Amino acid sequence: MHGGGDCAGGWATARFRELVTAPAEALTTSFDEAVLLVAAHAEPDLEIEVYRARLDELAAACAAPVLDDVLHRLFAVEGFRGNVEDYYDPRNSYLNEVLDRRLGIPITLGILVMEVGRRLGVPMAGVPMPGHFLLRLESEPAVLVDAFAGGQLLSPSQCVDRFRMIHGPDAPFDPTYLQPMGPHAVLARLLANLRHIHANHRDSQSLEWVLRLRTMLPGVTVEERSERAGVLVALAQFDEAAGVLESLADEAPPPRANDLMAKAKRLRARLN
């Protein structure tokens, strides 16, 4: 795996920005491309259309355009499964690697099911249950799927049980945890997983491109943008870090804005 970051002159970053600034409806039809563009930042030679074609082939191999056949094909026939041995391997978050290795985590296996289902007219939506990404069938919201558990079908009450297995028997469960999430939110969650992995590995180069992509999505926080500036400083990219701080200063109240501008000025002084 190559550590590309801003690969091929930034084409992957530019195309990702183009896709995620489109309305949710438009992003849905290109969602597989957006997810593969995330992977292209780690693997600059990634041939995105090859892997989109692989998804087409998986859909074509399903016996019928129904959820049961999608799940049977992917998990019983093709052998996709959750990587319980090395859950935090970053390859589990790259859709091309999931397709190659037949291993993933809840969100990437869920995306796989969503994309095969979309091709067959079986629309699925992501479900943002904390600690364990799930899916729900859009035509039958009470039908939920745990892709990490081999495509197991769950009722809402079984999802509550699974949540409390993860978070403790007394953990409060909010019904909104089972509400559908849009494609921008799924991408944000995928990038949040990668942020956690690369931060723990102290991989500043990878962390920078993850945070860069995150800032292109709706709902990015000031803290995440500030974090990217800190990573850029660690990479000795002082000019770009100063630019991030200056853009934050434009939106901050006066005391905070002054502090951010002073930091940016100090960074620019290091360039002389």
Structure description:
With 272 residues, this protein is α+β, with helices and mostly antiparallel strands. The protein folds into two domains: 177 residues, no CATH class; 49 residues, no CATH class. It contains 13 helices and six strands. The strands form two sheets. It has a four-stranded antiparallel sheet with strand order 3-4-5-6. Strands 1-2 form a two-stranded parallel sheet. β4 and β5 form a beta hairpin. α12 packs antiparallel against α13. The protein is globular and about 65 Å long. The two termini are 36 Å apart. The model has no long low-confidence stretch (mean pLDDT 93).
Task: Outline the fold blueprint.
Elements: H1 11-20, H2 24-29, H3 31-42, H4 48-61, H5 67-77, E1 81-82, H6 95-101, E2 103-104, H7 106-119, E3 124-127, E4 134-137, E5 140-146, E6 152-154, H8 156-167, H9 183-200, H10 204-214, H11 222-234, H12 238-251, H13 254-269
Parallel strand pairs: 1-2
Antiparallel strand pairs: 3-4, 4-5, 5-6
Helix pairs in contact: 1-3, 3-4, 4-7, 9-10, 10-11, 11-12, 12-13
Short précis:
This protein has 272 residues and is an alpha+beta fold.
Top keywords for this entry?
two-stranded parallel sheet; 8% strand; four-stranded antiparallel β-sheet; globular; 2 domains
Tally of DSSP helical segments: 13
The secondary-structure element order is HHHHHEHEHEEEEHHHHHH
C-alpha termini separation: 36 Å
Lateral strand order in the biggest sheet: 3-4-5-6
Main sheet characteristics: 4 strands, antiparallel
Proportion in helices: 55-70%
Proportion of residues in extended strands: 5-15%
Query: Domains counted in the coordinates: how many?
Result: 2
